[in-house]
UniProtKB/TrEMBL annotation:
Keywords: ATP-binding, Carbohydrate metabolism, Cytoplasm, Galactose metabolism, Kinase, Magnesium, Metal-binding, Nucleotide-binding, Transferase. PROSITE patterns: GHMP_KINASES_ATP. This is Galactokinase. Belongs to the GHMP kinase family. GalK subfamily. InterPro entries: Galactokinase, GalKase_N, GHMP_kinase_C_dom, GHMP_kinase_C_sf, GHMP_kinase_N_dom, GHMP_knse_ATP-bd_CS, Mevalonate/galactokinase, Ribosomal_Su5_D2-typ_SF. Residues 83-170 form the GHMP kinase N-terminal domain. GO terms for cellular component: cytosol. PANTHER family: GALACTOKINASE-RELATED, MEVALONATE KINASE/GALACTOKINASE. Its EC number is 2.7.1.6. GO terms for molecular function: ATP binding; galactokinase activity; metal ion binding.
Length: 369
């Protein structure tokens, strides 16, 4: 395995890390100005930097075993490099003097699994820039710069949730975030509970078109209700006056915001789990972003006696499921559920916690299509 020293010939001057995240509750509410409840995961991205004597920035990815050279003012063509390039440009835009750098990326955040590997990369990059330059940036500003970098330079029209979670959340405390005002507070997990994330093995090939369609539907519903965003709607019965599917979309957003706020005040794992179960039902029936494989995996999780609740997490149309479980049973739950899932010709894998990934990363056969 390579290292900063083997690639660049010396030790890095500064290193910073940032975690991935999983969203416990509050799905598709962020672009409606609503509430979200993400939590950081143990897997992290590390970014190391040193001043360079070259005229070009050198960016090496350990995961891809690829090095990219670029200058500011001309974006690199390699997609992973655009996230770092965007952070450098956004930092410079707020007055940071960004020197030419050697940059090394290492990460164990699973890529393409809906755990915000991109936000972890952005936040870690901005954290190490802050350390290297001494430029004053607080953790909220880092999240805001990271979001702008992803929108402007990586071409992803993302909300602020992922970057705020990576910058501010902990692994035992979720971040209750009002995406409209950025008001926030940390919320501990209920006692005797832990988070499990399983990948369905279904690649989210429809996420982009479906995601954009849902955004458009929410905007049209808000327009018909005479509000700026669905955040302003609190009476779920107003959805009855709208044509379908707009009424269903409103029912999900209003009920999901209420679930997030209720969960934030909940100190009981069983009650929290019931809210997660209700969230999945709403995402499946009212928001229509689930697929049969996700439904099957959620059903298996919900049926396990040591699981409090489970739901799809992320945009849907494939991807992962999150469950709140008894901590002492995480290994047994994941093995039993993935074994049953594989008996249906499907292949899943453990994403969080990462402790058993090398040993039981996948169970059973089938196509991960």
């Amino acid at each position: 395995m390579s290292s900063f020293e083997s690639v660049f010939g010396d030790s890095p001057e500064f290193v910073a890390r940032a975690p991935g995240r999983v969203n416990l509750l509050g799905e598709h509410t962020d672009y409606n100005g609503g509430y979200v409840l993400p939590i950081a995961i143990e897997q992290q991205t590390s970014v190391s930097m040193s001043h360079s004597n070259s005229k070009q920035y050198a960016l090496y990815s350990e995961m891809l075993d690829d090095i990219v050279y670029f200058t500011l003012g001309k974006s690199p063509t390699e997609h992973f490099a655009t996230y770092v390039y965007g952070c450098l440009m956004e930092a410079r835009a707020v007055g940071m003097k960004v020197p030419v750098l050697d940059i090394y990326i290492q990460s164990d955040v699973p890529m393409g699994a809906g755990l915000s590997s991109s936000a972890a990369l952005e936040v870690a990059t901005l954290r190490v820039l802050r350390a290297l330059t001494g430029f004053p940036l607080d953790d909220v500003q880092i999240a805001q710069l990271a979001q702008r970098a992803e929108i402007q330079y990586a071409g992803v029209r993302c909300g602020i949730m992922d970057q705020m979670a990576s910058s501010l959340a902990g692994t035992r405390e979720a971040l209750l975030l009002d995406t409209l005002t950025l008001e926030r507070r940390l919320v501990p997990l209920p006692p005797a509970s832990a988070v499990l994330v399983l990948d369905s093995g279904v690649v989210r090939t429809l996420a982009t078109s479906g995601y954009n369609q849902r955004r458009t539907e929410c905007e049209e519903a808000a327009h018909q209700l005479g509000v700026q965003s669905l955040r302003e709607v609190h009476d779920i019965s107003l959805a009855d006056a709208l044509p379908e599917p707009l009424g269903r979309r409103v029912r999900h957003i209003v009920s999901e915001n209420a679930r997030v706020l209720r969960a934030a005040e909940c100190n009981n794992a069983a009650e929290f789990g019931m809210l997660m179960n209700a969230s999945h039902t709403s995402l499946r029936d009212d928001y229509e972003v689930s697929v049969p494989q996700l439904d099957q995996l959620v059903t298996l999780l919900q049926a396990h006696p040591d699981v409090y609740g489970a739901r799809l997490t992320g945009a849907g149309f494939g991807g992962a499921c999150v469950a709140l479980c008894k901590p002492e049973s995480l290994h047994q739950i994941s093995e039993a559920v993935l074994q049953d899932y594989s008996s249906m010709g499907l292949k899943g894998r453990i994403l969080v916690p990462p402790h058993w990934v090398d040993r039981t990363a996948t169970v059973g056969g089938g196509s991960a299509s």
